[in-house]
């Protein structure tokens, strides 16, 4: 061991520049080896941050008019909810039909709400269909006016079945329809 | 040619008499290698420093834009929830037919000899019942012509999968031919209006 140290000392004394360069090179290579992954890690981090920044900027650009759009949709939904009926409010719901009867001059021979089970079955969504069965009598123009009132009326309406039968002087209209309701 | 006498020179202790000493080349090569390695390390460190600077700049941009982006994401979620409600209304109103239009269109499509006694809409199909004046031979021809005319009527174009005469029978009481026509919508739920 002491011989090795002596030999190394002799080499160092004989080739001092070579030894210093060798020692420095080894240290530099060790530093390069230890810091080799840092660059690729930093590159990956920069790439990820650039992606994030791109996404955030895209979100900002796409949401330029989002606030106005949300406001408009919320208002629209509020209007829809105001026009939706409540299934349990039977008197008020029937009043809607009686009001149309009075306005159009047709006569109901039957007006009844549909089975409650049907409304319960469809209650999974935000709105529920509230079913009604009607039999209406009137001349053809009045029947058409009555249907138009339902179609363009205050309440949202969906026609399920319809039978129009012509008698000698009048038309008998059997309707099964849903009004939009909210539970 | 082999040496003609033994060589007693001790080369290790003899001075280097070359014009440029070997040690100069060895030291030069060693210095060059060390300098190259040092330059490589330096350039790596500079590159790393540059990457860190860029990352810090991007992070600063992210810190600036992220709160707005987060608010936009929350707002978009709200928009989607509200849109879902509107879509539910749209689905509710996607009725196959408009009742008043349907009755008026059948009225417009009627030939002079045909009288409709009932129009029945049942989701996937419509059944028309009516009667036709004239002799049986003539009336049955009118019935077939009416079925063809219904298929060509502009308001019904492309709406029905089939229009068929499903019943035809004379009515002795009125001396008219009673007909039944079945109109099937193109899909099971009915055609869109």
Report on the structure:
The complex is a heterodimer of chains A (183) and B (193). Chain A has 183 residues and is of the alpha+beta class. Chain A has 2 domains: 1-82, no CATH class; 84-181, Ribosomal protein S6/Translation elongation factor EF1B (Alpha-Beta Plaits). In chain A, 61% of the residues lie in helices and 21% in strands. Chain A has 7 helices and 4 strands. In chain A, strands 1-2-4-3 form a 4-stranded antiparallel β-sheet. In chain A, helix 1 packs across helix 2 (16-34) and helix 5 packs across helix 7 (140-152). Chain A starts with a helix and ends with a strand. Mean pLDDT of chain A is 88; it is low at 117-123. With 193 residues, chain B is α+β, with helices and mostly antiparallel strands. In chain B, 52% of the residues lie in helices and 20% in strands. Chain B has helices at 22-93, 99-109, 136-152, and strands spanning 114-121, 125-132, 160-171, 176-185. In chain B, strand 1 and strand 2 form a beta hairpin. Chains A and B meet through helix 2, helix 3, helix 4, helix 7 and strand 3 of A and helix 1, helix 2 and strand 1 of B.
